[in-house]
Amino acid sequence: MADDVKRAPERAKRLPRAVREKQILDAAVRVFSLHGYHSASMDEISEVAGVSKPMIYSYLGAKEDLFLHCIRREAGGLLEAVQAGIKPDLPPDMQLWHGLRSFYGFVAEYRESWTVLHRQALTVGGPFAGEIDTLRGKAIELVSALVVSAGSRKGLAEQAEFSGEGLAVALVGAAESLADWWLDHSDVSDGVLASWLMNLIWLGFNDLVEGEVWRPTEQ
Amino acid sequence: MADDVKRAPERAKRLPRAVREKQILDAAVRVFSLHGYHSASMDEISEVAGVSKPMIYSYLGAKEDLFLHCIRREAGGLLEAVQAGIKPDLPPDMQLWHGLRSFYGFVAEYRESWTVLHRQALTVGGPFAGEIDTLRGKAIELVSALVVSAGSRKGLAEQAEFSGEGLAVALVGAAESLADWWLDHSDVSDGVLASWLMNLIWLGFNDLVEGEVWRPTEQ
DNA sequence: GCGTCAGGTTACTCATCGGTAGATAAACCG
DNA sequence: CGGTTTATCTACCGATGAGTAACCTGACGC
Fold this sequence. Notes:
Chain A has 219 residues and is an all-alpha fold. In chain A, 70% of the residues lie in helices and 0% in strands. Chain A has ten helices and no strands. Chain A has helices spanning 17-35, 42-49, 53-60, 63-85, 92-109, 111-123, 127-153, 164-183, 190-203, 205-208. In chain A, helix 1 crosses helix 2 (42-49). The first copy, chain A, starts with 16 loop residues before the first helix and ends in an 11-residue tail after the last helix. Chain A binds a DNA duplex (30 and 30 nucleotides) through residues 9, 11-17, 20, 41-43, 51-55, 57-58, 62-63.
């Protein structure tokens, strides 16, 4: 080709380390969310990041380290978003409601982050499982505290039919699955999604089929 | 060593194809559940199966095919177990109750099957995702039918606060998460697990904290 | 007895991909 | 301006593991 002559060597402009690290992490999250941990190649990540491979190793370490960095960053973002949405002075149901809305807001805004956290990090055992367990543990803790406080205020103790942790696990799982389902049914709004869950969790089937409805109060 | 003399060459005894296939599938499920799809090596599977590698390729095809065979077999088993437990003449809550018990019964008995189906097959995209979607789709359909029939019998239409499919997704997700959590908290019995979920789903938080309890009727 | 076919194995090929050594060039400082 | 630091690249190595070719062997029919 004629215009190959004197083609610039395409060497990337020199940028401060912090900027490159962000670029690399962004690219990594995207590629990991697309192909999963194992199928994602360092070469592809470097290409997407617009940087050569050794830079990644120099800045963020080996593949495992890189993935860990991704998980930590995204988990931090998610947790922050949810906690920012919760208003501790409101009654339990409204707290849950706001938490759920923040959660689905995050998922909507950062699909790739959510995919990495939920679909990818679970499978690969080892160091990652621990990190994800920590995140989910914090979510469960949050919900559990809510449930237990609501329950014990009424004098309800743990028994065979009721376990704060068990219910929290179930609730978090339901929220996660619905988020996952949402990825393929994006025509539903985040508010509607949260509303379904609140109605299921708060009222239960037997009330729902009687036509009862839970709706957020103006707070 | 002295007793190495005249050591038999350890050639496997000749067995009919069907038997070997089962051995291989069993080994594959175990290894996949242990390390995940990518980290599982065909060599390890062949070793666990007590058979050499080419046999696997000859009987069950390449790695992908092998994994697909595993998923299909285990999914079939799970679905069969759950459907066998459901008694269509009972009221909706009791149907759900029996379905849940069967489900947790299966998970307890075939931990490895469950791990492969839930943790491994999800991550790896491609042909497997479809297979798993089908399974989960059937579960959701089952639950959805239950919910919708219960709802429409009362004249409850789909609306912003209520979606049969949405609730089914949430319920199935809650059940899955609880199953997963159970793997690390095996001191709880399957009945208790199912009971937690029934109480959450059927009564909802607001009734639970008032001290209400759902219990199976004698059927 | 003796072909022949299904069951079974050893030992290899070859692509992919994580990771690195060593060269190069831009900025910064005296 | 040199000299040094830091950002960046090209080009390679080595391990791992999927998949296969070619060979062995016991059982059964005729």
